[in-house]
Amino acid sequence: MTRRLIVVLALAATLVLVCAATWRIAWRRGIDALQQQAAVRADRTVRSLGDTLERYESLSYLVASHPVVGEALDTGAPDAIARANRYLEDANTHAHADVAYIIRADGLCLSASNWNRPDSFVGSQYRFRPYFIDAMRARVGRFFGIGTVSHVPGYYISQPVYRNGRIVGAAVVKLNLEWFPGTDANEPLFVADKHGVIFLSSVREWKYRAVRDLPSSAAAAIEEARQYADEPITSLAIRPVRTLDAPDAQIVRVGARRFSPYYLLTQRALGMPQWQLMTLAPVESVLDDARNATAAVGSAFVSLCLLGFYWRMRRARLRDIMKGRALLQKAYAELNQRVEERTADLSAANAQLQTEVAERTRAENELRAAHEELLQTSKLAALGQMAAGITHELNQPLAALRTFSDNTRVLIERGALTDARENLEAIGELTDRMGKITNQLKLFVGRAQPHSALSFVVRALRNALHLLQKRLQRVTLEVRLCERQSLPDPQAAQTFGAANGYRPMDVATDHPSLAAYCDDLRLEQALINLIANALDALEPVAAPRLIVDLDVAEEALSITVRDNGPGIPADVLPRVFEPFFTTKQTGKGLGLGLAIVSSIARDCGGSLAARNDTGGGAAFVLTLRRAQTSGSATTTTVTTSATSATSAASPGTQADETSAGPR
What we know:
Helix 1 packs across helix 6 (about 285-415) and helix 10 runs antiparallel to helix 11 (about 595-605). This protein folds into two domains: about 1-280, PAS domain (Beta-Lactamase, 2-Layer Sandwich); about 450-655, Heat Shock Protein 90 (2-Layer Sandwich). Strands 14, 15, 16, 17, 18, 19, 20 and 21 form an eight-stranded mixed β-sheet that branches. A six-stranded antiparallel β-sheet has the order 7-6-13-12-11-10. A five-stranded antiparallel β-sheet has the order 2-1-5-4-3, with helices on both faces. Helices cover about 45% and strands about 20% of the residues. The protein is α+β, with helices and mostly antiparallel strands.
């Protein structure tokens, strides 16, 4: 018992020593790697900032050397100052600096790149600024501070301006360096001036805080130069914890709290501006790695000890195993017999499985053949739908072509060549429309992605009415406009008129503000189908009446086509938008019009709804996304009622027209 206790204590002491050594090695390696990464980051940042400052220092020298600047500071003439303003504005725009300006020898700013802005520096006094004092002493001035006029922090670079061998003022370029530190709060980075005051920091709360105690003389100099305006300068608690081999790196804790985080502090001097760049890299990952390494080594040591104990116990059990070997040999013989029996069963099952595989292969071949036949049938059905859609959509333009051609013949016989030329131009436009329709109808078989094309609603409505003017002669047509904050529910808006804010609208007048996200041709195509569908429903009505309402809201635009026809039967209403569904007589409609309009509405991000009005008749509501535009549309006069609709064709020249969809 005593021997076993001594062994356990010795192993425990060894475990402690191994864990301590592992911790120290892992900590040292982690700190070295972190220190190397921090040094690379600090050097790269110093080079980047140094290159930027050096580049803009050359800009200040070029501004100071320009003769326009010297003339303005020396003479003070208004025209010279105006030329200097234009030169500074152009130079600042191309150099992407914040502000460029020049200061007279008495400290007054005469000209600046922001001369025409409310926060212009022109007329401001800068005698107290250190960069002006350095320039008047024939030195390059470098200074970071908060602007006295713009109240925006920036880096100022000044150069003396010589005129005939004497200094007549200073040229200054201001840079905005707020972009430099970035926003990485995990690895803070900040820049402190020669007094130790932080003015650039990736942690916003650390700006204008001192990394060391600020002497009274330094505080007085900052106050006199108004370097940081009215920003209070407080201390940032950075407590050293451990020094490292490198002189510019140490382990610190940031903050006054008891459990403040540990960081690796790396410092770099920026040279000419006498700034200090400080980077903080959290050492928590190094601590975690050291803990994990210590835990892994400790676990491995304990595992080895347990393995040793297991090995000793296993040797004790070998004796018992030898005794049971005889019994195992007997059991082995019995096992061989069972294996032979099971092998016979598996052979029989394998033969049955091969039979099932052959059956599955045959069924799969039959399924593949059926699938190919179904695919060919689907292709033929799609071609049939495309042919039917093209036939349906070309009926309206073909009827219009017949009407225009008859009118042209009559006009030529009468000698009205101007009107005949207009009809021929309309025939050309209809021919282009037919070509576009054949392309647009592809969207019915294969959907197109929505796009952001704009269409003026009134112009599209005017073109649709113009195309259907023959059929509109016997119908009382009324176009109304209602502007409201939000569109009503199409199913709930059963009434219309003055109570809903509608007012008569003349479609001969353009309304550029009524624009929707939809292609011109597709919107005209939808309106033609809806109006033609309503005209088909009005054929048996004695006093037909057609109303087109435009409801306008901030983000949506609704077009409602109403008629006083017999309405839509309740059993038909759920199926009116199905392709090839129609209640009309054979030959008077293909049942594609409303399906095409519904497809156009969906592709444009809108919707199409159908209902029966309480006063009788049917109403179709096309809702589209409204486009905010200030453009203008082309004005074309179109008659909007049956009493004013006229035509140059003879009564017998009207072409037959096909219905635009199911009712």
